[in-house]
Design goal:
This is Eukaryotic mitochondrial regulator protein-domain-containing protein. One of its GO terms (biological process) is mitochondrial translation. The chain is mainly alpha-helical. It has a domain of 90 residues. The longest helix is centred in the last third of the chain and has 32 residues. The protein is elongated. The termini are far apart.
Amino acid sequence: MRRNMYAWINGPGQVFKDPLPGSTNYMSAYDKTGNLIRKRDRAETPEQDIDKAPEEGGSEKAGAWGVEGAAADEEGAGEAVEDALEKEMRRQAGEEKRNRAEGKDDKLPPENLEDLRPFPLNKMFRSQPVLSEELREAIWARVVKDGVSVPVVSVEFGVSNERVGAVVRLKQMEKEWIGEGKTLARPYSKAVLAMLPKTPYDPKNNRRPVVHESINDLIVHPATRQQIWEPVSESRRFTRVDAGRAFDASLLPADDRIPHPELVLVERESLAGLSKDERTQLAAKRMMDEQAKREKVERRKAEEAKRMQVVPGRRWDFVFQDVSVESVGRDGRGAGGVGWRYGFPHEDRKKGQVKIPTRVEG
C-alpha cells in the first residue's frame, strides 16, 4: 500500500500539486492515469459534436439589467443553480468553437457538471458556485457608492437579498481593515476561490449577468407549520389570502411574502399583453410609491422619537412618553391605551366558550 501510494503521488497524482488556472481541479475530472477527461474527450470528439452546443449571448441586447429585464427572465432566476451552470457551460462551449475556428485552441475546454464533483464516490454532490471577487466588489459599489437599494441590486445581479447584505457588510469591514492597515488573508482567499466554481462578472460584456441563485424563494412561516382544518362553503372561492388568514390573522399571502413581489406583477402584466414601455412605466411608478411609503414610515418614527424623553441610567435607559386617558376609548379597550393588553383575558380562556366552528360563512 505504501508503494502504491508513492507511485500514485509520483505518477497520476502530480497533477494535483499545481491546480489548473480557472478550473476546480477535482479528482473526478481526471482518469486513473492522470489525464484530464474533458481535454482527452475533446481530442477524441469530432468537430460536429461541438457544434451541438448552442451559443449563448449572441443575440441578447445590451442594456441596463433592471426590474423589467429581471422580470422577463424570472423563470430563469427561479431555476436551479445547475441550470445556470449549464447555460454558462454552453456559452463557453460556443466560445471554444469560435476559438477553434480562428485557430486559438490554447485554452482548456470548459468544465462540465462531472468536473464539479469533489468526492468521486458521492455522485449526487456537486460543488456549488460562489461569488467571484469582481462580483462582490460590484455589489458593494452599487449599494454603498451608487446608493441603490438591496432588492434592486438583488434583481440586477441575480443574488438573494440576504447574500447581498452579507457581501456589503463583509466588504465594508474589509475596507475598514485596509484603512486601519490590518493584514488580510489574501493568499488563503485566493487559494479557496481557485478550488471552487465561481459566478463571473464582466462589466465590459453587454450580456446579462449569470444568475447566481434563485432570488424569489419563499421562506416557510412558523405559523404554517401546524395543521388546521378550516370549514369552507362549497360556493366560496378560497384564495391564498384566505389561507393566510386561516393560519394567522396577520399572515400575508405568498405573492406578498416573497422577496420580490414586483417581479410577479411584471410577469402578470406581460401575460396581459402590455408593451415593454408600459411595463417599465408601471414598474417605475411602483418603485416611486414604495420609496414614498418608506419615507413616510421614517418620518413617523422620527416624530415618535421626538415625543419620547430618554433618561439614561446606570444599567437601563428610562423612556417617558406623554399619554392621554382618552386614548383607551369608550370601552377601555382602545389599542392606543397604555396597558390595554393586560387585564382582558382571551375569550377562549373563559369557561363555557365553544371552541369548534358552529357555522360556515358563505
